[in-house]
Design a protein that fits this description.
17 helices, single chain, globular, alpha/beta, 38% helix, five-stranded mixed β-sheet, four-stranded mixed β-sheet, 423 residues
Length: 423
C-alpha cells in the first residue's frame, strides 16, 4: 500500500451536475424544396474545436454535399464564447438572416426557446428519434416539443484507480451502504472515496404553461445526507476540478477515484501525467440512491433549427446524418449522442486506461442518462449552488443548504424572465 495519503475524491463543482440528473432556417435558404428538383441551400453554424488532426467540419459536410446534390449545406465556425454566439443568433433571427442550424448547449435550449429563436420540428425529428439515446434526445425538447437533435453528451461516470482499490481491499461501491463503508475504510487508511450521485426527482417541469420547480425533493435530500456524512468523516476531498490542486492530487497519488463527465477522459489522463498509467478504469455510477445505474448530464450540446425555417424536413435530414457521423465527430473530441454505433476508443487512451474499451462504457452511460429539462437562465442557478457548495466544503455551511438555494434562485430567475411559476 502506498504510504502517502490517497483519496477518493469528489469536487464541490460537481454538485449541480450530479444532483440535477434525477429525474434555423433563415431567409438565405433558397428554393422550394427537394421535390421540385431545385437545390435547397442550408447553413450551419457551429463551435466545434475543428483543430489540426481532427476531421474538419467542412470536410464532413463536403461528403454530404457530394452525395446530396439537391440539399447543399455550408458550415461556418463561430470562434467566440457560447454566450456571444447566442447573442448573435438572437440578433440574426430578428434581422431575418440567421443560419438554418446552430449548435446550442443543452442548458441554453430553454433560454433560446424563451427568446423565440427556435423552430418547432417535433414532427420532422420524430422519425430520427431512434438514432439517439433517449436522455440526450429529450434535452432538445421544451414542454414536449422538439427543436433539434442531440450531438454530443456528458454523462457522469466514475473514474477510479484499480490498482489502488486492490491495495486497499475495496471495490467500486454498488449501493449507498457500500459507498459509505468504502469511503470510511479508505479514509481510515489515509484515502478518500468519491461519493456523489444524481438525485431522483426532476427539477424542472412545465405544467399548464407554468414552470414547476422542485430542486429539494427526496433525491436531493438523500444526496445531501450521504455527502454530508462523507464530509463529516473526512472521507472526501472537495477541492474544485479545474484548479492546480486537482492535478496535483492525481500526480502525487492522493486522488484514486472521482466522478466526472465522459468528455473528461482525455483531460483526466492529461491531468494525471504519468501517474497511475495503466491503472485507471471507468465504470457506471452505483445505485447509491435507489436509482439503479441512472446518471445525470454534465455539458453537451445539440443542433437546433432556428426560427423561420422554410425547409425543416431537409434540415433535419442533414442534421440526422451529420450527428450520426460517429467516427468523424469523435475525432472532434465529442462523446456522441448517436446510438447508431459505438465509437472506437482512441489508441492514445489505451495505455492510461489499461486497454479498457472506454467508449463502450460511455455508450452505456448514454443509455443510462435520464432526461433532465433545464430552465431558462440556469447559469444563475448553477452559480448560486456553487457558492453554497463551497460553504459546505469548507464547513461554514451544510450540503442540505445547496438545494433551497437552488429552489429560490430558480424561482427568482424565472420570474425575472417574465415567466409563470407554479405555486
Amino acid at each position: 500500500m502506498r504510504s502517502h495519503t490517497q483519496r477518493l475524491m469528489v469536487c464541490a463543482a460537481s454538485f449541480a451536475a450530479l444532483c440535477m440528473g434525477l429525474a434555423g432556417c433563415g431567409s438565405n435558404t433558397a428554393s422550394t424544396g427537394g421535390d421540385s428538383g431545385e437545390v435547397v441551400n442550408l447553413t450551419y453554424m457551429h463551435r466545434l474545436p475543428d483543430s489540426e488532426g481532427m476531421t474538419l467540419v467542412k470536410d464532413i459536410v463536403a461528403k454530404w454535399n457530394k452525395d446530396h446534390p439537391n440539399i447543399q449545406v455550408k458550415a461556418t465556425k463561430f470562434d467566440g464564447a457560447a454566450q456571444d454566439m447566442i447573442k448573435k443568433l438572437e440578433t440574426d433571427v430578428k434581422a431575418g438572416n440567421a443560419p438554418d442550424l446552430a449548435q446550442v448547449g443543452y442548458a441554453e435550449v430553454p433560454e433560446v426557446f424563451t427568446k423565440g429563436l427556435l423552430e418547432d420540428v417535433t414532427e420532422e425529428a420524430a422519425k430520427y428519434k431512434s438514432d439517439f439515446a433517449e436522455g440526450p434526445y429529450s434535452m432538445m425538447q421544451v414542454d414536449g416539443k422538439t427543436y433539434g437533435l442531440p450531438q454530443d453528451t456528458g454523462p457522469l461516470v466514475y473514474f477510479y484507480n484499480q490498482k489502488a482499490f486492490d491495495e486497499l481491499g475495496i471495490k467500486v461501491p454498488k449501493t449507498k451502504d457500500e459507498l459509505i463503508e468504502a469511503a470510511k475504510t479508505a479514509a481510515a487508511s489515509g484515502n478518500i472515496f468519491a461519493g456523489l450521485a444524481n438525485a431522483s426527482d426532476p427539477w424542472y417541469t412545465v405544467k399548464n404553461d407554468a414552470w414547476v420547480v422542485n430542486t429539494n425533493g427526496s433525491g436531493s435530500q438523500a444526496f445531501a445526507e450521504t455527502f454530508q456524512e462523507l464530509i463529516d468523516n473526512k472521507a472526501t476531498l472537495t477541492n474544485p476540478r479545474w484548479v492546480p490542486s486537482f492535478d496535483a492530487s492525481l500526480q502525487d497519488g492522493t486522488l484514486i477515484g472521482n466522478i466526472g463527465a465522459a468528455w473528461e477522459a482525455p483531460l483526466f489522463k492529461d491531468s494525471a501525467g504519468d501517474t497511475g498509467k495503466g491503472d485507471w478504469r471507468v465504470t457506471q455510477i452505483g445505485d447509491w440512491f435507489g436509482n439503479g445505474t441512472s446518471t445525470g448530464p454534465d455539458g453537451g450540446s445539440g443542433v437546433a433549427v432556428l426560427k423561420g425555417c422554410e425547409h425543416k424536413a431537409e434540415a433535419m435530414e442533414f442534421l440526422d446524418w451529420f450527428n450520426t457521423q460517429v467516427e468523424d465527430l469523435t475525432s472532434q473530441g465529442l462523446i456522441v449522442a448517436a446510438s447508431t454505433e459505438t465509437a472506437k476508443t482512441p489508441e492514445s487512451w489505451n495505455e492510461f486506461y489499461g486497454g479498457q474499451d472506454v467508449m463502450k462504457e460511455f455508450a452505456t452511460a448514454n443509455d443510462n442518462m435520464v432526461a433532465f429539462n433545464y430552465m431558462p437562465g440556469y447559469s444563475a442557478v448553477s452559480a448560486a449552488m456553487q457558492e453554497a457548495a463551497d460553504k459546505a466544503a469548507d464547513g461554514s455551511g451544510k450540503v442540505a443548504d445547496v438545494f433551497p438555494v437552488a429552489q429560490q434562485t430558480s424561482i427568482d430567475t424565472l420570474k425575472n424572465y417574465g415567466l409563470s411559476v407554479a405555486k
